[in-house]
Amino acid sequence: MICGSKNKSYLKSQNLKIFGQGKLNGRIEISGAKNSALVLLAATLLTNERIILENVPRLTDIEKMRNILKNLGVNILDKNNTLEIDSKNISIKELPYKLVNRLRASFFCIGALLSKFGEAKVPLPGGCNIGLRPIDEHINGLKALGAEIIIEEGIVKAKIKDKRKKLCGTNIKLKCPSVGATETLIMAASLAEGRTIIENAAREPEIQDLCQMLNKMGAKIFDSGKEKIIIDGVNKLGGCTHKVIPDRIEAGTFLIAAAATSSSITIYPVIPNHLEAVTNKLQESGSKITIKGNSITINGKEIKGVDIDTAPFPGFPTDLQAPFTALMTIAKGESKITETIFENRMNHIHLLNKMGACIKLNKNVAHIKGVKTIKGMDLVGSDLRSSAALIIAGIIAKGNSNIYGLEHLDRGYENFESKLKMLGINIKREFKKRTLNDEEYKVNSETDEIPKFRAA
Ligand code: UD1
Questions:
Q1: What is the pTM of this model?
Q2: What is the Å distance from ligand 1's center to 46 Cα?
């Protein structure tokens, strides 16, 4: 029997077979950041000149974004992890639903298209099944910059109002520090007339990466990484070469996997201060962390229960909440994990309980009593980071596990199983000849309570 959600999209024919009670050992290279690369690809729409983007991870989400750009008329040359992007021949300002569906970041193109071409039509976004994920902050900000926006039959139609040629700089105060909205508005404001000030802006490293690339392209953006970002609009943006920052979430996932198996590994290259909240919690839970230049070494020891509350950067990232919960299942003592960013990001809890964990879930707060061991099972991941959590659980567990739902994992972790294999984990991808039917899945009734979400 396979336990998982009732969503038929996971009925795929691949799974990861994990032989439990593994240990990690060695050095592993961290890929470029998915969330940075996605928004940097959107930002290439702002110029007619060539952008060379280095360290782009090979992921299905990136592939989807590339297809969206290609569909707009963008020419992309691919050399390993480097993309040469030429947006000078864009002919369409409309993103088709079938390409945008299930890639939330594609919505972030709206700011760049609107600002450069004066109009854009973008379907409401898809993405991970982790909550409602509204776009009001994007829409309100664009309206404040002088856009007229209507939503018709699931399409957001935006154009610069009053027959003006450019958006108009203004003061915007975000109600919540949304990463995506901050990125949309930075791109829109970079070609607007005059100064835009975004208050309560998100401070995530991916935003700083976007601003660094835009500034190389000739933008005038000040104080990225702070709560108040200032953007002086320019007439035109040019080409540049830019290297995507290392993926702090992938890095954190490997550190957590090492802690969970009392292993020692070194990850590189990373920007250690992007991971401070995570390394602090790992230290508090008993691991030894050594930072040397752009590498972090972890020596996993006995695991102690610690509490975490997810929070916008520099707080503990919501994207690592699920993997950290997997670690806490076998910690000594109790821990409390509070998800504060997304309302439906606890999909992994009932599956970890099936493996023998002792977790009580009260809305978005998980109370965990550490157990000595958990047992291997067949499970279905239902979103990107909960899939990573299940894989960590499978590595810790006694016995073997088969993890399904790899379409989520492949969205966000480059060569995950090969990297784990290189670190000594006995793991392999299996391809079944047929798709499993409903009978072979034991659908867990708890998942029926998950509210409907628009993102799917
Ligand atoms: C990005 C990341 C995602 C990460 C998240 C939070 C990408 C591609 N994805 O997602 O991996 O988990 O940041 O760090 O970069 N909100 C509103 N109105 C809006 C927009 C957001 O209320 O218009 C709310 C959301 O419902 C959520 C919170 O703000 O509760 C944070 O969302 P946001 O920061 O926008 O996440 P994303 O940019 O979608």
A1: 0.93
A2: 22
